[in-house]
Every structure is written in structure tokens, then in C-alpha cells.
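In the current project phase, we have settled on a layout for protein records. One protein thus recorded is set out beneath this paragraph:
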Amino acid sequence: MTGLCASQQLALRRQLERGLPLTTRPYRHIAEQLGASEQAVLDQVNQWNTEGLFRRFGLVVHHRALGFRANAMLVLDIPDQAVDAIGEQLSSAPGINLCYQRPRRLPHWPFNLFCMVHGRERAAVQAHIERLLERYELDHLPHRLLFSTRAFKQRGGRFTPAAEVAHG
């Protein structure tokens, strides 16, 4: 038992989705906001982790502010029987920051594997992608390199249902 009531658990979940406060004791700060003890907050986070609620716990770096402005999505048309293996290869390749499969939208969009690369210069990103395609012998497959032109939003995932946000 964690000691947090349902409304405190919901408030904690919302806070974790927004990110930890930049203090030396972020869980104590959150606990104070919830009217709970720091230990109760830590116990709840540990329980959720044990239950497998968290895939990872990290931070979102605003890469554009660090000078990474040549950001591109490599989209590939991978044969269905090979997409898992190729996805695993590319996801562990240097410079690939995201890699995921999506369904094709035929007849206009044949691509089913998506890989994000962040870089400082467009030519360097293009050269890196070309080397990866050659290294994994994918350069013969249909693909496109789509460079970002404008950023509207960047943040970590939000999983609190809209109805809970509206009523909380």
C-alpha cells in the first residue's frame, strides 16, 4: 500500500507526465503539492515501476535549442517479412533516435518503417543516412528523406485521458 489516495495518484501521474521539478529533491516538492509524504510518493513511483507502468523514465531535450536543426525522418518501404529484423538493426544504429513501424497507406504512401535522425547540418544528415542505407544494404529499397521545416511542439508523452484532465 502506497498511502496515496486515488486523487493523489492521478495528480502524481499528471506531474510525472509534465516532468520532474528542477530541484534537489523533486519527489519531496511533488509530495508537498499533493499533501503527502515524500516516502509515499516514492513508494507509489516504485510500485508503478514494479507493475511495468514505465517503459522508461527520462527527459526531453529540446534539440533545436542545442543547434540540431537539420532533423529528418527517413521513411522506407520494407518488405513485411523483413520489417522486424531491419527495424531492430536500424533502431540500434548510431544516429537513429526513433525507429518505428507504421502501416502503409496505399496507394499514395508505401512506407512502413520510420527513422528519425537529428543533426546540425543538412548535408551531414544526408551523408549519414546514405552510409546507413549502404551499410544495411537498404539503398535499393524505396525510401525518402523528409526534413523538418518547422517545429510546432515537442514534449514527452501525455497519457492522462482528456476527461480526467478536464475534471481535475
